[in-house]
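I'd like us to work through together how a protein chain folds, taking it slowly. To get us started, please write out a protein record for me. Label the sequence line and the structure token line clearly, so we can match residues to local backbone shapes. Once you have written the record down, we can walk along the chain together.
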Amino acid sequence: MKKILLTLLCVLAFTVTNSQSKKEIANVYIKRAQNVIEESIDYKEARVLFEKAMKYLDTVTDYRIAKLGTIIYFELSDFKEAKKYSKQYFLVVKNKKSEDYLNQLELAVTIDEEIELEEAEERRLEVERIKKEKELRRIDSLKTLWKNKSDDLSLKLDSIYDFNKNSLALFKNNGNFGIINDRGEIIVSAEEYKHAVSYDGYILLMNKSVEPTKIYSFNTNSQNGFLLPSPSDFNPLSTHYGEVMLPRGNGRLVTYPNNSHKPLVYDLNLKRIVNIANTENLLKSLKKTDRIDKYNKEGEVKINKVWYNFGGHLGGGVHPLYSIENYTLKVFLCSIDGSLLNTNSTYQYIGAFHNNKLQALKGNEITWINQNGTKTNAPKDESGKYSGLSKVVKIAPGVYHIMQNDFIVLGKEKLEKLADFLRSNSK
């Protein structure tokens, strides 16, 4: 029993001693805080020292310490913390008639007023925050609405080529070609045509780039299209169109089908094969002018001791001549002066005559020639330059917008730019 009492007395003594020690340390920091205020009016430094003192005190029992804390936090505009020490001041102060008490009472009222102002400002800021949050949500909603509409008005295509004067252009998608107008409307869908040629206002869509068997012609001036007759309709032995030359502004197209002794000359406007009205009269005229030496009823002509199959007329007095033994194109006869263009040494293929010029191919090189085979400048493409409002804008790989005067357009629909859309829906 004596041992237990002795232990309790030791613990009590230690606690009292330790408590006394903490209070003394706290008083040191309190005094330093008071000195900082008196000497330099540095309330920030005073707060640091005051808070160090508070670590050593479980509670504030001295009204002077409570008053100091109130003043420090008041001067630093920490009114809620100042109110905490102000309350403690009134709990521990004894003399409630002193001038100090009345000053602290006045300060307590001021602190309450400042807290009310703070809380009012906090409420105002919260209302403003909620308002801004709602506005941001509304803007996000508008942005989402615009994005969805923008996606609806976008074109998912591989590429779009330049528009011509008739507001039409080729486009490519999934390896196929089609035709589109300057409002993004598909005129001919890209489903089966792997190759395309556009010239002089005509667009040719072909199922193959080499030796096509199917050609769709579209006249961009009249905005009409049609499928050309099968090569076998022109010649029962032909299985493909062979080399396809550029369409010309007069509507004439020349191709060189296989297994044939003459090219296919086609009028794209009249939608019919062009044949010489009277071949015998033409041959007779060529013989009379010494452009050929002889001809026979089988449509064969002799020039410089060599017989050829007469291949018709490309226009401009240019006539293709084929081998008698097979279907090899050998020579082009320029009847204007009797020039002979050998396919081995000059041009392998010549296109339709228009505006005093013909397209000629030598290997993969395109040349333009006149009626006697002399090289000349390339003609002006009659497809013309686009003068409309539309601009093709690439949004992402394989995604395009057509813009007109700051509007995205697709067919009859249009959508203003995002900034304008948000501005017009700002209310």
Q: What stands out?
A: Residues 192-376 form one domain. Helices lie at 2-40, 43-54, 63-75, 79-92, 99-152, 231-234, 279-288, 418-424. Residues 93 and 402 are 81 Å apart (CA to CA). The chain has eight helices and 26 strands.
